[in-house]
Amino acid sequence: MLTNHFTLTKRLLGLLLLIVGIVGFVAVLSVDILDVGREGGIGPAQRIALGGAALIALIGLTLIPIRDQLA
Asked: Which residue, among 52, 67, 69, has the nearest Cα to 14 in the 3D structure?
């Protein structure tokens, strides 16, 4: 990635978005699981964060099957 000839392809972008979405989703859930002293479960802000992480992962999944075309 640090060379002059590196190109960020749609497939690689899709993989990166998928990884970020999954890690974000797990991170938001782990915050709720690790914070055992608090009552109330998953709140509205966490639901929005979970939805955003799932949306990012879904967008990444749609980019992965796109074939890379070299010019």
From this structure: 67
Domain residues of the chain, as ranges? 10-63
CA torsion sign, 52 to 57 to 63 to 65? Answer: negative
Q: Angle at which helices 10-34 and 44-63 pack, to 10 degrees?
A: 160
CB of 57 within 8 A of CB of 22? yes
Question: Rounded distance, CA 70 to CA 68, Å?
Answer: 6
The length of the chain in residues reads 71
Q: Token pair for residue 21?
A: 């979405």
pLDDT by residue for the chain (71 residues), tens digit each?
667 777 788 888 999 999 999 999 999 888 877 876 566 678 888 899 999 999 999 999 998 888 766 55
